[in-house]
Every structure is written in C-alpha cells, then in structure tokens.
Amino acid sequence: AQSVTQPDIHITVSEGASLELRCNYSYGATPYLFWYVQSPGQGLQLLLKYFSGDTLVQGIKGFEAEFKRSQSSFNLRKPSVHWSDAAEYFCAVASGGYQKVTFGTGTKLQVIP
Amino acid sequence: SAVISQKPSRDICQRGTSLTIQCQVDSQVTMMFWYRQQPGQSLTLIATANQGSEATYESGFVIDKFPISRPNLTFSTLTVSNMSPEDSSIYLCSVLPDEQFFGPGTRLTVL
After folding, report:
1. How far is Cα A44 from Cα B15, in angstroms, rounded to an integer?
2. DSSP per-residue codes, B24-44
3. C-alpha distances in angstroms, A34 versus A66, B74, B98?
4. Which residue in chain B is spatially nearest to A98 when comparing CA positions?
5. What value does the mean pLDDT take over residues A52-65?
6. Is the CB of B92 less than 8 angstroms away from the CB of A43?
7. What are B78's strand-pairing partners?
C-alpha cells in the first residue's frame, strides 16, 4: 500500500529565509507525487506535481521540488519565503492512473517577520 | 482546469440527523472523489464516484453511513447519515480531468 510521511508537523522560518519541507513516500512502482497548499479557511491548491522526466520540478509561487528515487523523497523548497506562504503543506502520492491519492499528515508553516 | 463548487459551505447539525453535501463541476468529468479532513488531520479518501456505477468506498467507510449519488458527469452528492460529533470535519469534493482539483470544502459541525 502506498503511504506518505511528512516528518515535520510544524516549521517556523523567518521571512526571506530559505525553506525545505520534507516528504518521504512508499510505493512499489514509479509514483505520481504532488505538493498541495492549504491556507487557513481555504481549499487545497496544487503547487506542483511529478509524473516522470526531469526530477527537479518547478511549481507556482516560486516553489520547486526534487524527486530522489534512491531516498524515496520529494522535498519541497523555496529560496526566499514570504509572509503569505504561511499555510499548511501536504505531500501526496498517487497510484498509477492517478486514481487514488494518499496524503501525508501535513506540515504547518509559520513565517515570522 | 476545473472549477468546483460545494453546498453548503458550512453547517451545524444535531446528533442523529443527516446532511447532504452537493458538489458541482463546471465541466464533465469521469472521476469524482469525496474526502474527509478531520480537525487537525490530513485528508482521507471516503469514496470514488464514477457516473453510471456504484461508488467505491475505502476501508472504514460504508454506504449506509455515507451514501453517494452521481447522476451525471458534473454533479455528485455525499450524505452524512445519522451524524455524531465524530463526523465533525471538512468534507471535500475532488475531480479528475487531467489532475485532481479540489472544491472549497464543507465544514460540518455536529453537536
């Protein structure tokens, strides 16, 4: 069965600092991987996705993620965090055909001035 | 992309009652999904609803508790039956044209 682990429940960074959110997955074949963001009181928004090809994926809002098969990881990064990035971030993995998406438990990001 | 609307956006219900949540999509989609997000938790898939067939439920979810309708390719409903406080959650509809899009959710509180 597929699973996703986000080891950091809560992260605090200063505005302008770099950010890395960790995600590890477990899946038998090549996974489809995603990062979603959920702002307070808002729905989920897709930041980026990886299906195949280049392992460094660019997303919206200046985010990127790197797929590392050897480490079963798909960490999310941003070089300079803005106060508006404060939200909860979910990593997710989907089975082939994109039919079932399993979400991690989420990482809540706090940005301090 | 797909634009999804859900009704109601939030509701407060009494124990033992039922609530039906509607999900409307602005385009025809084959696959629709219903998720639950309990307070402080991640999203859990309840069921997959394809038009013209019975919904497929995930482990821990049953049709008697969460009946789903999918009358056409742009609409689905999820009913939360015989509610208890443990059903207090955000319920999200999701669709799959080429990637998963999520509705804004229905925030349900059961007293």
Report:
1. 28
2. EESS--SEEEEEEE-TT--EE
3. 11, 25, 14
4. B99
5. 94
6. yes
7. B21, B68
The whole-number average pLDDT for the span B82-102 is 87
**Is the pLDDT reported for residue B103 higher than 80?**
yes
Q: Tokens 């991640």 appear where?
A: B42
Contact B74, B26 (CB under 8 A): yes
Residue recorded with tokens 């609803």? B49
Q: What is the pLDDT of residue A39?
A: 86
3-state secondary structure of A85: helix
CB contacts < 8 A, A to B, total: 37
Beta-carbon contacts of A53 under 8 Å, excluding residues fewer than 6 positions away, are: none
| Inter-chain CB proximity A43 and B42 less than 8 Å | no
CB proximity under 8 Å: A 9-68 to B: 34, 36, 42-44, 46, 49
The reply to whether B75 touches chain A by the CB within 8 Å rule is: no
Segment A42-48 mean pLDDT? 85
Question: What pLDDT sits at residue A2?
Answer: 82
Q: What percent of chain B has pLDDT over 90?
A: 72
Question: What is the arithmetic mean of pLDDT over A72-97?
Answer: 91
Smallest Cα distance from B96 to chain A, Å: 8
- Are A100 and B42 a contacting pair at CB < 8 A? no
A104 CB within 8 Å of a chain B CB: yes
Return the beta strands (E) in A18-86 as ranges.
19-21, 24-26, 32-38, 44-50, 56-58, 64-68, 73-78
